[in-house]
Amino acid sequence: MQRLLLIAAAGLFSAICQAAPKPNFVVIFIDDMGYGDISPFGSTLNETPNLQRMADEGMKLTSFYAAPVCSASRAQLLTGCYAPRVSVPGVFFPAGDKGLNPAEVTVAEYLREAGYATTCIGKWHLGDQPSFLPTRQGFEHYFGIPYSNDMQRATLSGGPRVTPLLRDEEVAELLADEQQRRVTREYTEEAVEFIEQHRDEPFFLYLPHTAMHIPLFPHQDFVGKSDNGIYGDWVAEVDWSVGQVITALRKYDLQENTLVIFTSDNGPWASKGKAGGVSGPLRGSKGGTLEGGVREPTIAWWPGKVKAGSVSDAIAGTTDILPTLVKLAGGKLRSDIKIDGKDISPLLMGETTKSPHRAWYYYHRNDLHAVRSGPWKLAIRPQSLGMGIRERPEDLKTTEPRLYNLDKEIGERTNLADQHPEVVARLQALAKEMMADIGSGRPGPGVRPPGKVENPVTLYPTKPRR
Questions:
Q1: Neighbouring residues of 43: CB distance < 8 A, sequence distance ≥ 6
Q2: Using CA atoms, how far apart are residues 356 and 421, in angstroms rounded to an integer?
Q3: What is 360-452's CATH number, 2.30.30.90, 3.90.1300.10, 3.30.1120.10, 3.40.50.300?
């Protein structure tokens, strides 16, 4: 009898496991896309029907934050930490001696330990030396341009400036400018193939697109297809790419077991004019800590789990992706590694409307510029309108605290510090607490070292830079 009971219990346990497989995860990370660049967030310039459908079937996160620039945002997403904590405050360049420390535990490493197939397809930008590449950070495979597409170098043999397209750790091809028109399509084809190959096991697909970074190179099939010039053409191709990924998930009946998150790494490169995106109702752009530089157009899609047509304005951000995915995968975070992110799965599933964050901190490189708690944002340092914008309005030059109520005025123009000294004091105390940990200007005791190599070289032979 006891043996029969054990067999029955084992069978029940097996049935439960089969009925609740581990969810799949897809994170689509766009480069330099503004808050106002897609129709779910109010764009009338760019048509994005696939993203609109994704939002209609999922949740818009309207207070989702990244960092002001590329490498910093990617470090936050992969480690669950504010970028300065892991010593990735700015942007890495080709053949640099620093990168994301291989000792950091990334979301890919957590998920791979949990039995997930993992791949990174697209822009990496956390160091191009072998020890910094995705295949050393938890991803089984990598395909993409390892840094920004404007970081071209001339080869030693001469000819046009090129960017490398990597397959795992080897240079598969050197791309001249016009050849970059293929990358969004090739990334998408790789992503769909990965889904097909791993449809019978849990997988993590990290798809950080090269688009919308300058230089703009939409595929020829999309050139001239939009009413918003070449920028709108590439937005249209990105929207197509999202549609292809969602279609693949539906084709293999994976939609009800897959969480897809769409977001961007920082605000639009507004100083580029029509070649850059727009921040919509937000002030500021890429490279700054005004809302337009760091608040991103974000959508979470998981039919049957994330309520269709829902909207959350609770504070969340790229740091939250790691703890959220690890929790949903049934994993456990390491207690010996401090992170800043929070599990936002209750928010996504509609179990709460409240943010798990007491505050969100706006770092520009190693400097703490501002802190937000609830609707209140306190700027404690001078700020800019964004990278490449020389104009510096008088209200952003001052070192005096500037307090904004983002619920009442999302554009950050009315300083309410004099009317609410108690709020200023509370947010100043939060800022002081963070500066005692990560620091501001100088690294604090909570900062971990970057990865570093000796004698770094470019991924392909290049002419010496003068």
A1: 36, 37, 278, 280
A2: 25
A3: 3.30.1120.10
Helices (H), 312-383: 321-328, 345-348
Q: Quick count: other Cβ atoms within 10 Å of Cβ 103?
A: 10
Radius of gyration of the chain (CA): 22
The CA distance from 126 to 247, in Å, is 30
- What is the spatial distance between Cα 41 and Cα 461, in angstroms, rounded to a whole number? 43
Q: Is 81 a catalytic residue?
A: no
Query: For the whole model, what pTM was predicted?
Result: 0.95
Tokens 């123009």, located at residue = 413
Centre a 10 Å sphere on the Cβ of residue 44 and count the other Cβ atoms it contains: 9
Q: Tell me which residue has tokens 């405050």.
A: 89
List the catalytic residue out of 70, 81, 120, 209. Answer: 70
Q: Over the stretch 355-396, which tens digit does the pLDDT of each residue have?
A: 999 999 999 999 999 999 999 999 999 999 999 999 999 999
CATH for 21-348 is 3.40.720.10
Check if 70 is active-site: yes
Point out the catalytic residue in the list 81, 120, 125, 213: 125
